[in-house]
Amino acid sequence: MADRQLMTGNEAMAEAAIRAGCRTYFGYPITPQNEILEYMAAHLPRAGGTFLQAESEVAAINMCYGAAAAGVRTMTSSSSPGVSLKMEGISYLAGADLPCVILNVARGGPGLGNIAPAQGDYFQATKGGGHGDYRLIVLAPSTAQEAADLAGLAFDLSDQYRVPALILADGMLGQMMEPVALPPHRDPATLPPKPWALTGAKGRDPNYIASFALEPTVLRDLNVRRHARYREIEAREVRWEEVATADAEVLLVAYGTMGRIAKTVVRRGRERGIRVGLLRPITLWPFPYSPIRKLAERVRAVLTVELSAGQMWEDVRLAVEGRCATPFYGEMGGVVPTPSEILTEVMRHV
Amino acid sequence: MSSTDTMTKVFARPRSLTEKPFTYCPGCDHGLLTRILAGAIDKLGIQERTVIIAPVGCAVFAYEWFRCDGIQASHGRAAAVATGLKRANPDLIVISYQGDGDLAAIGTAETIHAANRGEAITVIFVNNQIYGMTGGQMAPTTLAGQRATSCPEGRDVRTMGHPLPVAEMIATLAAPAYVTRQSLHDPKHVAQATKAVEKALRYQVEGKGYSLVEVLSTCPTGWRMPPAVAHKHVADVVTGAFPLGDLVDRG
Amino acid sequence: MPNGMVVVDRERCKGCGLCVGVCPFGVLELSATYNSAGYPVVSASHPEKCTGCTLCAQTCPDVALEVYREKAVAGSAVGSSAETPTDHR
Ligand SMILES: Cc1ncc(C[n+]2csc(CCOP(=O)(O)OP(=O)(O)O)c2C)c(N)n1
Ligand code: SF4
Ligand code: SF4
Ligand code: SF4
Ligand SMILES: [Mg+2]
């Protein structure tokens, strides 16, 4: 039976992580995600796990690297500037094929920016961020419920594919309080075994974990094998939501907090007889290119709405490939457009 | 010559070493210290529960030299990786092996905070006063006046800082169980360093907490000295700047 | 003085000469022969002088030396000078 509680998006992700069997958490304070750190400090030890406030985001992600190598589900959370600091560590996790969940409750940038909701970290999350040819599984919740659901999914996908998973949220989602149906607790002992983990070379050959291979052909082959897994993820794990797309003339594409606002736009538009629909990517990587492409065959315009200068917009245009118009509407710096502003923009394309 | 039938082996390759040859330059103390560490792992019988953390530096391959589980850490972060491993699985014996650029420049924060938390890990700190791997640049431990490729006129302490006394700094903290500085420049010191490494590991096995074994080491290549001359330099000069001995022993 | 014997793993030796310098009895010498990696290798030019004290092996950075000593007669403390394990089972 699902356990229903009123909680913020931040708390929902933290609680869902514990219920998913996360047993180590390493973090560093930064607004607007402090509630995750504090929730873990209060609740993870009670679940038999380890909470540690690290000396920096750099240390925190490297602690995750160690804990992940030990075969234990591990998570860190931060907000934009802190996530920038984690990038080398994330690249090492990717290069060493270690599972780990990273929460970015993003804020306005660049630099210190502000603590208002923003989506300027899309490139960082989906196009690298750290160095080298790697991918992260990137999940973008739009409600507290979905934040909880995706936190659990992030652990499972990360373990299954040995690819780090990042949840891209923002302060609005993180702070908003909503009823959440929580998943049951999972006993870490019942999770699939990790024969590659560093548990001590007892009765087996040593396990080695590294992202290092001096010989180019060896490193190439490691990359090729990893990219084969990426292809599998692209084939199997794309997730998105469609709202009123069947007869849409204008298709909105928006994710996260903006996706939630876009739903309101669709509702209000439909009330006024405007044939507007929404495709909300849930996985930002793998990105829902083909569902967007299919809809682009029959709409007049695909309008991307983001809290950025147009980052996901590039992926939307790659999906549409000239099949229809691809306008963009966005705000930066933590300014959140209202549904009526967006609706006005929609009207320009019907 | 006597045959091995009538003889006993009194010095053998430690069982905790794999067959892989070391990638170090001829006469480099890194190799000697690796052997000492493997010998200590054998002696304590902990090969099956040990994880070796290799740094970025000339010891980057170290995770493959031990018949123990191993992991390679990003530059300077080995103490954080060690923290993650040990916290995730306290039954592991976690050994972080790091150079002076790695531990005392880029990784200073992780080093100090792991020590200050008293993480139950063993840190083997190779102080060779230089960045060996990248070609002999100045390290935080480079001696005053010592030449390196990035201080060709010698380290000017007025603008480049003084050699960083890592063991002394760590010794000011409340948590560490054992902090010592050792050297490998002659057999007597090798024997002492061996005992120190064993003690540091024993303390971890006994749950006594954090240890740091700083080891004055040579970099014959970076110092541009033949190996034996480099050992004499450690005896005559380096031990003057970095005094040897135990600084903390809370065993 | 016990009789000892030092065995050089020619492929591991890098010819650094450290063992030559620490041997108290002048047993070892850098030979004019090279291994497959191109390093000159050390050899026991005066094997009869070896006591099996293990100082050379304890100094070798590449673990290229093994040392044997004549089987212990009662009372002698074989292995006491070597802090490294003597057990090779
Ligand atoms: C983030 C980062 N910065 C710089 C380097 C380049 N780098 C590789 S090894 C090294 C210095 C290592 O020196 P030290 O820790 O003293 O080890 P040694 O080689 O002397 O044993 C540096 C700067 C790197 N790999 N990663
Ligand atoms: S560069 Fe220096 S520290 Fe590195 S292997 Fe060579 S001698 Fe040793
Ligand atoms: S064991 Fe002692 S005597 Fe024999 S070669 Fe080595 S150092 Fe010389
Ligand atoms: S110390 Fe070792 S590597 Fe150096 S010359 Fe002697 S046997 Fe060879
Ligand atoms: Mg160095």
Structure, explained:
The complex is a heterotrimer of chains A (350), B (251) and C (89). By secondary structure, chain A is of the alpha/beta class. Helix content of chain A is 40%, strand content 19%. Chain A has twelve helices and 15 strands. Chain A has helices at residues 9-19, 34-43, 57-69, 80-95, 122-126, 144-161, 171-175, 216-236, 256-271, 289-296, 312-320, 339-347; strands spanning 3-8, 24-27, 50-53, 74-78, 101-106, 137-139, 165-170, 177-182, 208-209, 240-243, 250-253, 276-281, 283-285, 301-306, 328-330. Chain A has a seven-stranded mixed beta sheet with strand order 3-2-4-5-7-6-13, sandwiched between helices. In chain A, helix 1 runs parallel beside helix 2 (34-43), helix 3 (57-69) packs parallel to helix 4 (80-95) and helix 10 packs across helix 11. The longest helix of chain A has 21 residues, at 216-236. The N and C termini of chain A lie far apart (45 Å). The model of chain A has no long low-confidence stretch (mean pLDDT 97). Chain B has helices at 29-44, 78-88, 100-106, 108-117, 157-160, 166-171, 187-205, 220-223, 227-241; strands spanning 7-11, 50-54, 69-72, 93-99, 122-127, 178-183, 211-216, 245-249. Chain B is built from nine helices and eight strands. In chain B, strand 6 (178-183), helix 7 and strand 7 (211-216) form a beta-alpha-beta unit. Chain B starts with 6 loop residues before the first strand and ends with a strand. Chain B has 251 residues and is α/β, with parallel strands linked by helices. A seven-stranded mixed beta sheet of chain B has the order 3-2-4-5-7-6-8, sandwiched between helices. In chain C, 11% of the residues lie in helices and 26% in strands. Chain C has two helices and four strands, in the order βαββαβ. In chain C, strands 1-4 form a two-stranded antiparallel ribbon. Chain C has a two-stranded antiparallel ribbon with strand order 2-3. Mean pLDDT of chain C is 85; it is low at 75-89. Chains in contact: A-B, B-C. Chains A and B meet through helix 3, helix 4 and strand 9 of A and strand 2, strand 3, helix 2 and helix 4 of B. Strand 9 (208-209) of chain A pairs parallel with strand 3 (69-72) of chain B, so a sheet runs across the interface. One iron/sulfur cluster (SF4) binds at residues 24-25, 28, 30, 58, 128, 132-133, 219-222 of chain B.
